[in-house]
Amino acid sequence: MNIGILGATGNFGRLFSAKLLANPNYHLTVISKSAGNIFEDSFRVTAKTIDATNHKDLKNALEGADIVYCAVSGPDQAAIARNLVEINPKRLIYMTVVGIYNELEGEGAEFNLENEKEQIPNRNASDLIEESDLNYTVLRCGYLINGEDNDYAITRKGETPKGYVSTFESVEKIALEIIENPELYLKENISITRDMS
Questions:
Q1: Which of 56, 68, 78, 196 is packed most tightly, with the most Cβ within 10 A?
Q2: What is d(CA 30, CA 14) in angstroms, rounded to the nearest whole number?
Q3: Residue 115: which residues within 8 A CB-CB, separation 6 or more?
Q4: Residues 97-144: pLDDT tens digits?
């Protein structure tokens, strides 16, 4: 299986790429502005040092991908999401954060869009993905920490997330489940966080 990882040199992207490489059936195309500085090409890894806001470069990089995991952050997310919609990969997991719908309550409410304007690119990109015809899953996570892979609760869009913290391991677990079963959470927007209720 060919898996494209956007944002492969970020904190999550590096860990998830290493996790995927533990499975000999996966070939990775790792994509970021500095991919070539972190990853070396091999028979199972292709490093693409590109700017994902460049439609042509991103399309070329994702050619042949069976599934794409997008773990980008920052102000360029809407441009990247727009490119993904036009490229139309077979299956997309788009990683973003809780709070983009002002859905957090209690202590976590400070991370809601209405209180945190840095959330605007996250919301805009998610809207573009959801309004498209893509076979997507929007995966909303909390602040990422190390922990257990079973330390999570899943909620759907419109429901209040159980917390505002997520473990790297639990997000990896759900992502791997989707990769192995692409019908799982198809065209859904879910949050995965620790149960802090």
A1: 68
A2: 9
A3: 109
A4: 999 999 999 999 999 999 999 999 999 999 999 999 999 999 999 999
Tokens 């999570």 -> residue? 152
Confidence of residue 197 (pLDDT cuts 50, 70, 90): confident
* 70's tokens: 């997008």
| φ, ψ at 55 (rounded to 5°) | -60, -50
Q: Exposed/middle/buried for 117, CB within 10 Å: 0-12, 13-18, 19+?
A: exposed
Closest CA to 13 of 36, 32, 40: 32
Residue 38, class by beta-carbon neighbours within 10 Å (0-12 exposed, 13-18 middle, 19+ buried)? middle
Instruction: Specify the length of the chain in residues.
Output: 197
Q: Which helix (H) or strand (E) holds 21?
A: helix 11-21
Contact, 140 vs 191, CB < 8 A? yes
| Residue bearing tokens 């028979």 | 43
